[in-house]
Design a protein that fits this description.
Bound molecules: S-adenosyl-L-homocysteine
Distance between the termini: 65 Å
CATH architecture of the largest domain: 3-Layer(aba) Sandwich
Strand order of the largest sheet: 16-15-14-17-18-20-19
Radius of gyration: 22 Å
CATH topology of the largest domain: Rossmann fold
Number of domains: 3
Structural class: alpha/beta
Helix content: 25-40%
Shape: globular
């Protein structure tokens, strides 16, 4: 198979020599021919030496690297990448735990597959393309996945209507590429939940908080818990299993509250300890009293782009300040940021400022991040996005 060739400007191959998987449009000197959005292209240095092969896209990131070797991007390529990703999840025990059938199988750059996300929920894999190239190759990827995980996966649902660049005119349609089961109950560490892969956010569930929820379980005994930004109620049902006195789940979306109630009932039917409220976070935090001694703040990404950083940090500061103001003495705060552009230091400074405003004595108990099935490619530090602090508030 012959691919279109992209030639870099002199010196622009340096980051590729260190295996960084993105090529910015400004680094390109010329392109032979006119590759289409999402087409596979070969990349050459100004000295005409092959350096990488990847998906072409019109935009700031012009090529997302699939391989640093000259090879064909075909069914066997996808099969081998998926097999490695799956093997890693087996090696670390996450895909072989009998109480857990929910995990991320492919985490984009973290699995050397930039632009591709695959989450596994029991017998269904939900596949999401964040680049034109992964969309163009979706059928081959789906075929590869069905072969590699023939025993495990019966359904493959493709969900990219909201994740692809609008300008690329790709018109993705969500739907099953394989199978079509309506059974959507999955399990995380023995707790059951419904996954709404049809309408839910992301791939239907926030798989990335699994280990942090599990940690919360161990701090929940006899505590009064507020799970703010609860979405499908993940932290809430862990808190209940951990022996919380009461658990209140809050989210501004009525749909999220409905999902939370359904998931809590699935695990703890008619348990009077739980109540859920559809309300804005800031309003709820303003009107609530001082009854909570365990608070979770897991807001949506406040900054999606660099220029929104200042406002985002202000948002984290205001939100955390309210929690510090209200949390009971001896309380524990789990606070998160999932904005990629907000660094660990940015986030910590925002929380530090909020703590100082409240005048409370605050200790850091844990510094949290994303779990091992959301690995960070060491050559692509941008892949680290989830940050959390567990704080003891005197
Ligand atoms: N903690 C969740 C994930 C949170 S996602 C989990 O473990 O699965 C962020 C959630 O914040 C979304 O469900 C969204 O509906 C909610 N949200 C966004 N803005 C909000 C606001 N101003 N007040 C309350 N909830 C909000």
């Amino acid at each position: 198979m012959s691919y279109h060739k992209v030639f870099l400007k002199s010196g622009k191959e340096e980051s590729l020599k260190r295996f960084h998987p993105w090529i910015f449009s400004g680094a390109i000197a010329r392109i032979n021919g006119e590759p289409e959005e999402g087409e596979v292209v070969e990349v050459y240095t100004s000295k005409k030496e092959f350096i990488a092969i990847g998906h072409f896209q019109i935009g700031s990131i012009a090529v997302r690297v699939l391989s640093f070797q000259q090879e064909s991007i075909d069914l066997s390529f996808w099969k081998s990448r998926l097999a490695v990703a799956w093997q890693m999840r087996k090696d670390i025990g996450i895909a072989t735990n009998p109480t857990n059938n929910t995990y991320r199988l492919v985490h984009g750059e973290g699995d050397n597959l930039p632009g591709l996300i695959i989450d596994v929920y029991a017998k269904t894999a939900v596949m999401q393309a964040h680049s034109a190239g992964m969309h163009v190759d979706r059928m081959t990827i789906s075929e590869a996945l069905a072969e590699v995980m023939a025993e495990e996966i019966e359904n493959i649902y493709y969900k990219s209507e909201t994740t692809l660049p609008y300008k690329a005119d790709l018109f993705p349609e969500n739907g099953f590429l394989k199978g079509g089961s309506a059974d959507n109950i999955a399990q995380e560490y023995g707790l059951k939940f419904h996954v709404d892969w049809l309408k839910g956010q992301k791939t239907g569930f926030f798989v990335d908080q699994r280990e942090n929820r599990s940690l919360l379980e161990h701090y929940s005994k006899n505590r009064s818990v507020l799970n703010m930004f609860c979405y499908t109620g993940g932290f809430s049902f862990y808190a209940m299993r951990g022996g919380a006195k009461l658990v209140h789940s809050v989210d501004s979306s009525a749909k999220a509250i409905e999902l939370t109630n359904r998931n809590v009932s699935l695990n703890f039917p008619d348990d009077p300890r739980h109540a859920a409220y559809a309300e804005d976070a800031f309003k709820y935090l303003d009107r609530m009293g001082g009854e909570y001694d365990l608070i979770v703040l897991d807001p949506p990404a406040f900054a999606k782009h660099k220029d929104a950083l200042r406002n985002a940090l202000q948002g984290y500061r205001k939100l955390n300040a309210k929690a510090f103001e209200k949390i009971k003495p001896g309380g524990i705060l789990f606070t998160f940021s999932c904005s990629q552009v907000v660094t660990k230091d940015n986030f910590r400074t925002a929380v530090f400022t909020a703590a100082a405003l409240s005048g409370r004595k605050v200790r850091i108990l844990h510094q949290l991040t994303q779990p091992a099935d959301h690995p960070v490619n060491i050559y692509h530090p941008e892949g680290e996005y989830l940050k959390g602090l567990v704080l003891y508030v005197e």
